């Protein structure tokens, strides 16, 4: 990721750190109370911070001793005075307690942030995978 500290890069850095730490509260703090999420997993959408916090709690607790390393590549963003938009390829890698990479997947990630009370919060997030039309399965890498 770029060293440039745009609102999008700051949010993505904080997202990666919160996921790696399995810190539900730090993760949820990145999002607006009225966040709307289109996720690639489990259900069509999440509306509101409590639904998203519950998802994060379930995700992090399902990991056991594993950690997840999150890497954002090809980050693109634009920011105005109170709205910012960004997209990237994101790789989620499962890491064992011994530090061994167990598995990984890459998908597409888009976030929209709004500045409210001098703080940038994610108000919309969309993760997606292209679909192989022959098999109907998601394509997990570029």
Fold and architecture overview:
This protein is of the alpha+beta class and 142 residues long. The chain has one domain (7-128): Nuclear Transport Factor 2, Chain: A (Roll), CATH 3.10.450.50. It has 3 helices and 6 strands, in the order H-H-E-E-H-E-E-E-E. It has helices spanning 7-21, 24-28, 49-62; strands at residues 31-38, 46-47, 67-79, 83-95, 101-116, 119-128. InterPro entries: NTF2-like_dom_sf (IPR032710), SnoaL-like (IPR037401), Steroid_delta5-4_isomerase (IPR011944). This is Nuclear transport factor 2 family protein. Residues 8-131 form the SnoaL-like domain.
Which descriptors apply to this entry?
Nuclear Transport Factor 2, Chain: A; single chain; alpha+beta
Helix and strand layout, with pairings?
Blueprint: H1 7-21, H2 24-28, E1 31-38, E2 46-47, H3 49-62, E3 67-79, E4 83-95, E5 101-116, E6 119-128
Parallel strand pairs: 1-6
Antiparallel strand pairs: 1-2, 3-4, 4-5, 5-6
